[in-house]
Specification:
Blueprint (H helix, E strand, L loop, with lengths): L1 H8 L8 H7 L9 H11 L2 H11 L5 E2 L5 H13 L6 E4 L4 H11 L4 E5 L4 H9 L6 E3 L2 H5 L11 E2 L2 E2 L14 E8 L2 E9 L8 E3 L2 E2 L1 E2 L2 E2 L6 H10 L22 E3 L17 E2 L12 H16 L8 E2 L7 E2 L2 E3 L8
Parallel strand pairs: 1-2, 2-3, 3-4, 14-16
Antiparallel strand pairs: 5-6, 7-8, 7-9, 10-15, 11-12, 13-17
Helix pairs in contact: 3-4, 5-6
């Protein structure tokens, strides 16, 4: 709400946040989401039918064309425009925006082309200098949060139909997933990504558990004291009780230990649950230690995840983010905010 208000006050043309627009007395403006294209394609049978279904309710509105193949979608729409279809614009959200915009312009010369995807003023300037043929830009993440801890959810199944996104650089794997973890001697050996209906092999434990359905939590909270006792007792084991099934809105920081800790994952092992990086995390001035900084970042991500309460969510007890090489992320100590 406040971000949309500040953006319009600073000179932006409109906001796609419907509630913010209505409360500000503005007209909401936008295109369509990948999730909508994927859902309609699965239920209606094709991307073309998804476009037609969207236009039944929003005649002539801009269409998102990069869910599967931007150029092929533009070719299809060019034929429809020649046949009399009203189309005010298309949106590109992935791939080489310079090359794609030029190709789409050659196919749809009278149609506005919008771009989006973690854009800021520097990227827009680069695109213009490189010759991108774009008429407008959708700015969101970097306008509001600057350099965020990015996280995106994507539909992988709808009504039992596996779906996937094929955008350039943003391809997803279809079908509901499960993660099976293998451990040896208390150390994490590796994780295996599989479909949800697969059976774990010997020595594997499942990490993903259904925690919300139809907007309702399925498991109660564990108390902070219960979580702390379990962590102290068995810090390297995946949590199998209700603490591993926290609602995203109550998911907080993981415990962090130094590399010298006997309970830390061994970086030399094939420990895929630990993402290491050389950069340090930034936090508020009140956060002084590296552990506190990482906890603060994880908590901010948890706040974002809490906005997804209305979805059927599978929550894994690991948050993959770059860590300083001296720290190790443990999956067993989620703490409610």
């Amino acid at each position: 709400m406040w971000a949309a208000r500040a953006a319009i006050a600073a000179g932006f043309d409109a906001t796609s946040n419907v509630l913010a627009a209505l409360q500000l007395g503005e007209q909401p403006t936008g295109t369509m989401a990948h999730a909508l294209v994927m859902a309609l394609s699965a239920l209606e049978g094709s991307e073309a039918k998804a476009f037609a279904a969207f236009h039944r309710y929003f005649p002539g509105a801009p269409l998102l064309i990069d869910t599967y193949d931007s150029v092929e979608a533009a070719r299809y729409l060019a034929q429809q425009v020649k046949a009399g279809m009203e189309l005010t614009g298309v949106r590109l959200d992935s791939g080489d925006l310079v090359e794609l915009s030029q190709t789409v312009r050659s196919l749809l010369p009278q149609t506005d082309i919008f771009a989006s995807g973690d854009l800021d003023e520097f990227e827009i300037a680069r695109l213009k200098q490189a010759g991108a043929t774009l008429d407008g830009y959708g700015i969101g993440t970097k306008l509001v949060t600057g350099a965020p801890v990015n996280g995106v959810y994507k539909i992988v199944e709808i009504d039992g139909i596996a779906v996937m996104k094929k955008s350039s650089g943003k391809r997803t794997y279809p079908g509901r997933k499960q993660i099976f973890r293998r451990q040896t001697g208390g150390q994490i050996v590796g994780d295996r990504l599989a479909l949800a209906d697969e059976t774990p092999s010997a020595g594997e434990v499942t990490l993903l558990q259904l925690v919300m359905q139809a907007g309702q939590r399925l498991r109660p909270d564990d108390s902070l004291q219960t979580i702390a006792r379990r962590t102290a007792k068995n810090p390297d084991q995946p949590v199998q009780s209700s603490a591993a099934n926290q609602s995203p809105s109550h998911t907080g920081g993981n415990s962090l230990r130094s590399a010298s800790s006997p309970h830390c994952c061994n970086p030399a092992a094939n420990c895929r649950s630990v993402a290491q990086g050389s950069g340090s995390a930034s936090g508020s001035s009140a956060v002084s230690s590296p552990s506190g900084q990482m906890r603060w970042i994880i908590q901010q991500a948890a706040v974002w995840l809490g906005q997804l309460r209305s979805l059927n969510l599978y929550v894994v007890s690991i948050l993959f983010i770059p860590l300083p090489s001296s720290l190790c992320l443990h999956p067993s100590a989620f703490i409610p905010l």
